[in-house]
Specification:
about 550 residues, alpha/beta, Rossmann fold, 2 domains, seven-stranded parallel β-sheet, six-stranded parallel β-sheet, 23 helices
């Protein structure tokens, strides 16, 4: 918390790199954004302003969280009646964090700049407000006071901790919304459980992760639950997390809405390359995210076994390479993985075993169209995994674990997974070899990625999920409906609108929220005030 509060950020407005918006990712998605709003779709009370508060770079090329936030902004701009203005508040983008090399920082800065410029052209107004600057937050909120309604959406619980107390003080009638992205405390509890076991295998790690449920002595859980209680409404990413919040932690279901959205106008072309026109396998993930780092280390351990089995079936010139893509692949991380691979295999260079550390790519979909299988041996994590959606949109089957597939399907009853799900080393190796060498198996999985989907019942599918039960359907197109924000958005907008219209009554009945906003319990606010005064004093 202290690090977040003390970090100094460079301002968006001072970004010196100037680009035309020719990013392939943005270009591809923007073609789907300029659509007429559905008159019967998302409706908000008239003259509603929306502010999205964030503390991380808004880069859909770097993470699923960026895709999600961009999707929300897009729906507010193009498919929401009653919205008067849309704003983003951020501390800025720092390309010189200690964990980033100059190249990865440059990539992040370039793509961040393109995204911001694109959204500005669509009508989003960006504001740079560093943490612990109450006067700037106050002045900004006062500039919106002429609007009839104000929604403030915080993109993570620690963003809420930083900014919401200013909103509570200076815009007390604003509707406060938390977008959880994923359940951070669950992900971190699973990570600790895996690391505590010290077991390298998939099965041992996944077993430990699935058994890990945060308890009342977990500081991450207390912070996250407190954030949810302070809000008027929270968007929850996964049905599992919805069930945990309601059934185990006692959150009132009226304060939650299931929003498993990951992208705009999910579309899978039926003319993606065939098995014979693809080669190699890949992993995709941002490497500031610990589950992705662990997954690559699992691949370094399993890849020699996969390659050995493939050598028994394929000629040397047909053997696949393993390509590892993702933002923030630093030189120190490369060196760590190279040393780990040498330790595990006694092979001096991963390249000689067919492993390429490719790092960041601008147009991921174009890359995925040429690969035959995606590998995602995730042992811990939470929420929905954006890498699976990216793969399936490219017609690419995925070999993953129950943790990777969590939130998409009920694996006990769902038989049309676009790839393979396994919990063991042996199962993972065999599934990769089968999908890579068996055209029939690959074609079946590929068909599940792009089978025709009747979108006419998609809203009903989303509405059913709000009952917090596992109402999955054995439908080959189900995953597309589940993650498409265009499908979920009318229901989310309706929930937001009801919250605005019933806000005074809701708050009178929300005793826990009232308790948490008592001054004596608002430690983060007073820590913020202390840091602000300390930093201002230094500047004199």
């Amino acid at each position: 918390m202290n690090i977040l509060l003390k970090r100094q950020w460079k301002e968006f407005s001072r970004l010196t790199v100037s680009f035309h918006c020719h990013s392939p990712w943005i270009t591809r998605h923007s073609q789907r954004l300029h659509v007429a709003s559905d008159p019967a779709g998302a409706c908000f009370p008239n003259d509603t302003a929306v502010v999205v508060w964030t503390t991380v770079p808004l880069s859909p090329q770097a993470s699923a969280a960026g895709v999600r936030t961009l999707g929300i902004l897009t729906q507010l701009l193009t498919n929401s009646q009653g919205i008067a203005s849309v704003h983003v508040v951020a501390p800025g983008l720092s390309p010189s964090e200690p964990s980033a090399t100059s190249s990865t920082a440059g990539e992040a800065l370039v793509e961040q700049t393109k995204t911001v410029q694109y959204l500005e052209r669509q009508g989003v107004q960006f504001h740079v407000i560093p943490p612990n600057r109450e006067h700037k937050t106050r002045d900004f909120l006062q500039s919106l006071s002429h609007h009839a309604n104000l929604i403030c959406l915080f993109d993570r619980f620690y963003t809420e901790e930083i900014y919401s107390h200013h909103v509570h003080r200076h815009a007390p009638n604003a509707t406060l919304v938390l977008d959880m992205q994923d359940m951070h405390s669950l992900r971190r509890a699973r990570q600790r459980a895996v690391q505590t076991t010290g077991v390298d295998s998939l099965e041992g790690g996944i077993t430990a992760a699935k058994a890990a449920i945060p308890h009342a002595d977990d500081n991450d859980l207390l912070r996250e639950l407190a954030s949810i209680h302070r809000m008027d409404l929270s968007l929850v990413c996964s049905p599992l997390e919805m069930t945990l919040l309601v059934s185990r932690y006692g959150i009132c279901s009226q304060k939650l809405i299931l929003g498993p959205l990951l992208g705009n106008a999910i579309h899978v072309s039926n003319d993606t390359p065939s098995w014979s026109h693809r080669k190699d396998v890949c992993f995709v993930g941002g490497f500031r995210h610990d589950p992705n780092v662990d997954a690559v280390e699992q691949l370094l351990r399993l890849w020699p076994r996969i390659r050995q089995q493939l050598q028994e079936q394929l000629n040397e010139d047909k053997l696949p390479r393993l390509h590892i893509y993702g933002a923030y692949l630093t030189s120190s991380l490369r060196q760590k993985w190279q040393a780990k691979f040498r330790q595990l295999t006694r092979i001096p260079d991963p390249e000689s075993c067919g492993i390429s550390f490719n790092g960041f790519v601008t147009d991921l979909r174009d890359v995925l169209l040429h690969h035959r299988v995606m590998l995602a041996p995730l042992r811990f994590g939470a929420g929905l995994k954006g890498k699976l959606v990216e793969a399936w949109q490219a017609g690419l089957p995925v070999v993953t674990t129950p943790i990777g597939a969590e939130g998409f399907f009920d694996l006990e009853t769902f038989h049309s997974f676009p790839g393979s799900v396994t919990s063991t080393d042996e199962g993972f190796v065999n599934a990769v070899v089968d999908l890579y060498t068996n055209e029939i198996s690959w074609n079946r999985a590929h068909e599940y990625t792009h089978a025709h989907t009747d979108m006419s019942d998609s809203t009903a599918c989303f509405d059913d999920s709000q009952s917090h039960q596992s109402n999955y359907h054995d439908d080959t197109g189900y995953w597309k409906r589940w993650v498409d924000i265009a499908v979920a958005w009318p229901g989310i907008a309706a929930g937001l609108s009801r919250t605005i219209q019933t806000l005074p009554g809701r708050r009178k009945q929300d005793t826990v929220r009232a308790i948490l906003w008592r001054e004596t319990l608002r430690s983060t606010e007073f820590l913020s005030k202390y840091i602000e005064q300390k930093e201002l004093f230094k500047g004199k």
